[in-house]
Amino acid sequence: MKKIFFLFLVTIALNASAQIYEPVEWATSVEKTSEKEFVLIATATIEEGWHLYSQNVPEDGPIATTFTYEEIYGMEVVDKTSEGEGHEVYDNVFEMDIKYFENKAVFKQKIKLNQPHGGIINGVVEFMVCNDKSCLPPKEVDLTFNLK
Hints:
The protein is mainly β.
């Protein structure tokens, strides 16, 4: 009985410490720029003290923020995903100058639909966040863009 009670306590302790901290929340929106053209907007809200890395980081640096979009017949991705200005500063964790975002980051992707579409486009963002002392493992988040 003592072994079962001890195993129960260890299980509770592991579950309590295994909760994942998520300092970034993602929201999506869409701007319609013409009958066939749209801008997919992904906005990251970043907790105080944390920073989200740019899509363009130096070699041997952190995982860059990366967007992928589902392939849909008749959909054309126009250019690369753009991002806001951010800050380029010396990062103590990686010991190099890196561009990152604090508080909020906005990413925009232009698309063109050459065929009628049902109205939903799915994507995935992979990203990494750090504070001045440590980094969280890279994470993938599903994104849904509603064209209607």
